[in-house]
């Protein structure tokens, strides 16, 4: 199997102005735990408000979750958000 694979990745999300939006992705992999991050419209979100957790499932298999929060969403927050994960030379 591949070293990394997505178990959950955000799809279409609809919200009202001023509400908090949370996007979550989950990755499972073998080997080393991943580095994870987010892009918006093809550009990295360097200072994104995200929480990340890694849980070992066995000695060399893990589950990693990244959740991006957008508080008080505005029209300027609209766009295409994508989660990425990188480990062992492989990136999704």
UniProtKB/TrEMBL annotation:
UniProt cross-references to PROSITE patterns, sorted A to Z: IG_LIKE
GO BP term, example: homophilic cell adhesion via plasma membrane adhesion molecules
Claim: Signal is one of the keywords in the record: yes
Sorted UniProt keywords: Disulfide bond, Kinase, Signal, Transferase
Ranges of residues in domain Ig-like: 2-92
Matching InterPro entries: Cell_Adh-Cytoskel_Orgn, Ig-like_dom, Ig-like_dom_sf, Ig-like_fold, Ig_sub, Ig_sub2
GO cellular component: axon; neuronal cell body; plasma membrane
Pfam families tied to this protein: Ig_3
Record-level Gene Ontology MF annotations: axon guidance receptor activity; kinase activity
Name of the protein in question: UFO kinase
Protein species of origin: Grus americana
GN (gene name): Axl
């Amino acid at each position: 199997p591949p070293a990394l694979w997505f178990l959950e990745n955000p799809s279409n999300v609809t919200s009202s102005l001023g509400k908090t939006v949370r996007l979550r992705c989950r990755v499972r992999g073998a080997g080393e735990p991943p580095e994870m991050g987010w892009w918006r419209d093809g550009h990295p979100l360097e200072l994104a408000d995200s929480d990340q957790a890694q849980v070992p499932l066995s000695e060399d298999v893990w589950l990693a979750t990244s959740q991006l929060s957008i508080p008080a969403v505005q029209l300027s927050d609209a766009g295409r958000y994508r989660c990425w994960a990188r480990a062992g030379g492989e990136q999704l």
